[in-house]
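Sample intake sheet
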Amino acid sequence: MKNILYLVAVDGSDCSLRAADRAVNLAKQTHASVTFLTVKDWSYLQPMVLEGAAPIILDQAAEELHTRTHVLVPLIEKYQDSDLEIKAELVWGDPSSEIQTKIKELRANMLFIGRQGRSRIADILLGSIANKLAHQADIPIVLVP
């Protein structure tokens, strides 16, 4: 029997935490494993720079530590008694591209993602990551409100 893997895109938003709950609940019923994935978009974190002004330097290691401490570790701890294989990963890059790459790399069977992420303004201006993935991913997607 093929191992079932659910990939869950998480960013700490309420929608992504609900997506994690849905994935874990379904995984319990289907004996699947779950991987939580956070993608840090470096370009989004870089502030807009005015010509002649010195840019603010963001510390990648500090950003990773903050994300692991406040997003990934709490999720792992929340579900540690679920009797499921649960992993967490953090990668850097364009979120929709990196999520698609992980889907293929991990051979995920289903993607769970919150319908709205942490930045509602960016979603409005650029289009949501969930919307992009709903049109581009090659596996079933659960969009969680």
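Comment: Strands lie at 5-9, 33-40, 86-92, 110-114, 141-144. The chain has a mean pLDDT of 85.
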